[in-house]
Amino acid sequence: MKRRDFLKTALASAGLMAAGQETTTAKKKETFQEDGKFVTEPTKQIPILLRTDVLVVGGGPAGTAAAIAASRGGAETCLVERYNHLGGLWTGGLILPLLSTHGLGRDGKTTRVIRGIGQEITDRLKEKNMVIYERNPLVDPEAAKYMLDRMIEESGVRMVYHAWATGAIMDGRTIRGIFIESKSGRQAILANVVIDCTGDGDVFHWAGEKYREVQHRICLPRRFGNVDTIDKNAPGYTKQKLGWKTPTPNTYVKWEGSSSGPKSSCLDVMNLSKLQVEHRKAVWEEYEAIRKTPGYEKIFLMDTASQLGVRMSRVMEGEYQLTLEDSMTYKQFDDAIGMSGSWTSVPYHGGKIKSNDRPFWQIPYRALLPKHIDGLLAAGRCFSFDDGLVEDARVIGTCIVTGQGAGAAAAVAIKESNTPRHISRHALRQLLLEQKVLLEA
Predict the structure, then answer these.
(1) CA-based angle 205:220:398, to the nearest 5?
(2) What share of the chain is helix, strand, coil (3-state, %, to 5)?
(3) Domain residues of the chain, as ranges?
(4) Cα atoms in the 13 Å half-sphere on the side-chain side of 343
């Protein structure tokens, strides 16, 4: 059976191929209803925007890698992104380093373990002199946005920008697609396999999968320009902390800007609104204070991130929960989809292990699989791991690895006319090796 026929059969059996799928129900007069806590939304038919083999929700590092991997694996793929660019926090959020590229091997040598699409992106940016550092490479955000667009286009992914995913379309415990909201109104996208790369686990939350919420500090990164004009010989000069060098000439970026507050929830829109105002005020006041420092008169605030720097939120309860202990003991998995490294020190067995002394670690496919919902995979900072692994599981490098693993798995599921839960692990391994992923070292 052809993939498109398979999709149509599945959707028809789920009762989703309803008449009127291209147009909304004729408008009729509705009576406003509310009970003090809720407003009743009228029932209506939602037009289907498109059908696809694989639907990736969220175009951050994980989602972009997932879409590329799925499409290169032979699956018709659609990627939905709410902003006007790919890369998520890596680009629009100005979290510029691709962290955790390296880890310590059993032989005591530091090894680069993030390969595949992650290395391809940085290699292509190197050709344009838009990346610096070999370990944990740091990119120029605009160059990265451009390169991700080109890779998506070259891979044949169908791109939908400026659309928010707003709900899951369910058939019992199987997901069949999502609802989106955009300037075109409310629409549906249907698929055989859906990959949740929202970062916040929005899709598996709507689908009814179990998860926990992990709160973390929320920041607003920024960049300063004209740093080369600083006059260290000016009377009264004192050194000011501006941040890290970037590939853009004479420009620096400060990663953790205005993030000294307590851990809080990014799932509360009023909290996000409050923090947005507070962080922007703090950034501007800091900038003005720096400008008043002798020698710093010519620097300028180049930009602030287009989105708040959310580190953590929902973490899925997957078929396997990857642990810090796994990452520290070279635990091997027969369903590994890739490897990641380290970038920071972590507490371990009563001590503190420095980044350079931490092993590289494998990521099992089971950690991307929900326990209860079929047709769904999760990648990025919301896949299944314990609290001890938060600092390395949430960063850009690991997100790309899990994204590519999920995308490859979705392509295998389509090829086999199977669900992600029951695909051949051997076929998945072979596809990942073809896509130059390092599975073991």
Answers:
(1) 55
(2) 30, 25, 45
(3) 48-214+314-434, 218-309
(4) 21
Give the total residue count for the chain: 441
Burial pattern 7-41, b for ≥16 Cβ within 10 A else e, equals: bbebbeebebeeeeeeeeeeeeeeeeeeeeeeeee
Which position has the token pair 């694996």?
Answer: 73
Whole-number pLDDT of residue 17: 39
Nearest residue to 395 (alpha-carbon basis) of 385, 379, 380, 378: 380
For residue 55, the cross-strand partners are 78, 194
CA gap 141, 148 in Å, rounded: 10
* Beta carbons within 10 angstroms of residue 384's beta carbon: 22
Instruction: Give me the pLDDT at residue 27, please.
Output: 54
Q: Which two tokens stand for residue 366?
A: 């089971």
Query: Tell me, what's the pLDDT at 31?
Result: 78
Give me the residue label for tokens 């998945």. Answer: 428
Q: What is the DSSP string of 27-91?
A: P------B-SS-BPPPP----EEEEEEEEEE--SHHHHHHHHHHHHTT--EEEE-SSSSSSGGGT
Beta-ladder partners of 131: 139
Q: Return the pLDDT at 251.
A: 77
pLDDT for residue 176: 98
- 211-213/314-316 β-pairing: antiparallel
Q: Whose structure tokens read 């709160």? A: 215
Q: How far apart are CA 193 and CA 177, in angstroms?
A: 8
pLDDT at 252: 77
Q: Token match 């796994």: residue? A: 326
The CATH class that applies to domain 48-214+314-434 reads: alpha beta
**pTM, whole model, 2 decimals?**
0.91
Q: Alpha-carbon distance 320 to 153, whole Å? A: 34
pLDDT at 21: 37
Question: What's the token pair of residue 135?
Answer: 């370990």
Q: Which residue has the tokens 């408008």?
A: 27
CA-based nearest residue to 169, from 188, 185, 186: 188
Per-residue pLDDT, 254? 66
Residue type, 261: G
Low-confidence spans in the chain with pLDDT less than 70: 1-29, 254-260
Contacts of 287 (CB under 8 A, 6+ apart): 222, 224, 301
